[in-house]
Amino acid sequence: MPASTPVSVLLVDDQPLVRAGFRMILESAPDVSVVGEASDGREAVRAARGLLPDVVLMDIRMAGMDGIEATREIVEWARPLGHGVRVLALTTFDLDEYVVGALRAGASGFLLKDTPPAELLSAVQVIAEGSSVVSPAVLNRLLNRFATLLPLPDAVPDPPEDTLTPREREVLRLVARGWSNGEIAAHLVLGETTVKSHVGSILTKLDLRDRVQAVVHAYETGLVLPGQADETGEGTSGKQHGEASGPSV
Predict the structure, then answer these.
(1) Which residues carry the post-translational modification 4-aspartylphosphate, per the record (predicted)?
(2) Which helix (H) or strand (E) holds 171?
(3) Cα separation of 176 and 163, whole Å?
(4) Which of 85, 131, 233, 245 has a beta carbon 3.0–4.6 Å from 78's, enabling a disulfide?
(5) Is the pTM here over 0.85, yes or no?
């Protein structure tokens, strides 16, 4: 989007004081505009359809329709229209099983509610640009912790053999382990541009939106199993967290 166009945000939380706090933070930035609020999931779906925000800041745990179902409905409705309504899920705990459900439902990332204001503003911009605020390494640890929520490898159909090339499967496996493009390039003796091209092809072939969904897909299809070690030993490096603010591919 043009640099002069503010990022439009829909706030969704069942606590008015929490919404007021987020609104104050977001409206302190000249390039962010809060276009609406909702107090539950069903209201959020209606507001998203009417306002077409760039980002929905979505509380996960709400009475009635929760944030997971609301995220699923918003993403499924917006995607065929080609409008980039993206959801940034909020949670009180970083190891909350609802976060896994939100990511499966189509959320582009998640934040803790006590995230510093500067990080919240940065995350909104990153999400609006089509990237993810959940680093692959963090998602890896989350999925490992809640492995019991994931289907067993033999409980899901294997993708067709020709869906991905052997090289793309190898790249996807490394992405799911939390490796950055630079680390993958060094390991496979490829250029970073080539790795980025492979990741883009993977997302297109599997009809995935970003790296977050690619990691979930790799776990759900058994390509990577919960508990597998990061063989680089760099799964929590600063490069990983830095990449989370960059392009999603």
Answers:
(1) 59
(2) helix 166-176
(3) 17
(4) 85
(5) no
Q: How far apart are CA 212 and CA 142, in angstroms?
A: 12
Q: Which fold has domain 166-221?
A: Arc Repressor Mutant, subunit A (1.10.10)
List, by residue range, all CATH 3.40.50.2300 domains of the chain: 7-145
User: Which residues are CB-neighbours of 167 under 8 A, at least 6 positions away?
Assistant: 188, 198
DSSP string, 36-84: EEESSHHHHHHHHHHH--SEEEEES--SSS-HHHHHHHHHHHHGGGT--
CATH code, residues 7-145: 3.40.50.2300
List the structure tokens of 205: 């072939």
User: Band of the pLDDT at 38, cuts 50, 70, 90?
Assistant: very high
CA 71 to centroid of chain Cα atoms: 12
**Pairing of β 55-59 and β 109-112:** unpaired
